[in-house]
């Protein structure tokens, strides 16, 4: 069975979702980040896994459900931190971030019976999920992160290594206010959508 990894930052004002400000305040952006993280962890908790791990920059809070091991993120760029997260896994692993609160347990229920890697592209050119049947940190190190070609470069790295890659559905990350509203519409009953509905009127009034 697969280890499910979530890489995340502690949702503190000024440290998360800075592209939501404006129209949201740093405090409101942190509230949205916390709701997105809570929805993500809920989906991971419901999906089958041999182990569930939160790879965290910061300290856990009341948003963390039971059943997760919490480990600190490594140092260096995002590619290095992702690589280290995989390096800690002894068997098949699927890693996701905290920017897709619309994720479901069905999307996270994966196996590697007919492939070596699972790849979840994001609409902004990155990726929301990466799964490896045999975790190899070298597959991530040196991949340029947070660019419009991050996903393409990462997927090509997998193919060039001779891995059989199966793609997961393309999802939209929450980076901007427009992203937030679009994603909330896809999962209207989640914590993220409910929190956005409470905060959006005030944010609109500040435009």
Biggest β-sheet strands, sense, barrel? 7 strands, mixed
Q: Tell me the number of strands.
A: 7
Radius of gyration: 16 Å
Enumerate how many helices there are, as a single number. 6
Count the domains. Answer: 1
Give the strand order, joined by hyphens, for the main sheet. 3-2-1-4-6-5-7
Uncertain segments: none
Shape: globular
Plain-language structure description:
The chain is of the alpha/beta class and 207 residues long. The protein has one domain (3-205): Spore Coat Polysaccharide Biosynthesis Protein SpsA, Chain A. Helix content is 34%, strand content 17%. It contains six helices and seven strands. It has helices spanning 26-46, 78-87, 105-108, 150-160, 177-186, 191-205; strands at 3-9, 51-57, 69-72, 93-96, 117-121, 127-132, 165-167. A seven-stranded mixed beta sheet has the order 3-2-1-4-6-5-7, sandwiched between helices. α1 links the parallel β1 and β2 (51-57). It is globular and about 55 Å long.
Structure characteristics:
seven-stranded mixed beta sheet, 207 residues, 6 helices, alpha/beta, single chain, 34% helix, globular, 7 strands, Spore Coat Polysaccharide Biosynthesis Protein SpsA, Chain A
Chain-wise SSE layout:
Elements: E1 3-9, H1 26-46, E2 51-57, E3 69-72, H2 78-87, E4 93-96, H3 105-108, E5 117-121, E6 127-132, H4 150-160, E7 165-167, H5 177-186, H6 191-205
